[in-house]
């Protein structure tokens, strides 16, 4: 995970269900988690711990910096990303994942909100979600990582003696 973790508001998951929620006994297979930022950001990475989510879609709400009066638009930047190879088994069910900017379908710049759409088609798992969601911003181009002071004081590697130049 990057060092540039953003301050954001992660809302509680909302179930998407067809039919009457009170009378329909079928459990929802889709949850939506919204993440909001105080201002527009350029995303570098989204990391989280899976909890029995099989597939993930990521949508971004982006503003156009050249015409902010046009309003924000929702765009899909990741489609059907597999978190569990087989939704009916536990493989990948509690792993940590990172989604990087390079994996997204478009540049995740000028983002005001992220919508995580979680799917679990298996009826084996009663609950599923994403935990420990962290979103990192792109670093600036001229930012440099600080090196520890001991790193600059390393002694150079000794050069091996040239045995071909030695005459007997």
UniProtKB/TrEMBL annotation:
It comes from the Eukaryota. InterPro entries: Nicolin-1 (IPR040235). This is Nicolin-1-like. GO terms for cellular component: nucleoplasm.
């Amino acid at each position: 995970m990057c060092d540039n973790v953003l301050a954001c508001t992660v809302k509680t998951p909302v179930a998407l269900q067809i039919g009457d929620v009170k009378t329909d006994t079928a459990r929802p297979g889709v949850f939506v988690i919204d993440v909001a930022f105080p201002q527009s950001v350029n995303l570098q990475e989204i990391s989280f711990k899976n909890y029995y989510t099989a597939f993930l879609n990521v949508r971004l709400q982006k503003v156009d910096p050249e015409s902010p009066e046009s309003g924000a638009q929702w765009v899909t930047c990741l489609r059907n990303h597999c978190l569990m190879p087989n939704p009916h088994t536990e493989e990948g069910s509690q792993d940590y994942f990172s989604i990087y900017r390079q994996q997204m379908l478009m540049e995740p710049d000028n983002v005001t909100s992220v919508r995580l759409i979680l799917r679990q088609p298996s009826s084996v798992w009663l609950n599923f979600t994403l935990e420990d969601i962290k979103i990192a911003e792109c670093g600036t181009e001229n930012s440099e990582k600080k090196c520890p002071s001991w790193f600059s004081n390393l002694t150079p590697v000794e050069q091996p003696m040239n045995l071909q130049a030695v005459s007997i």
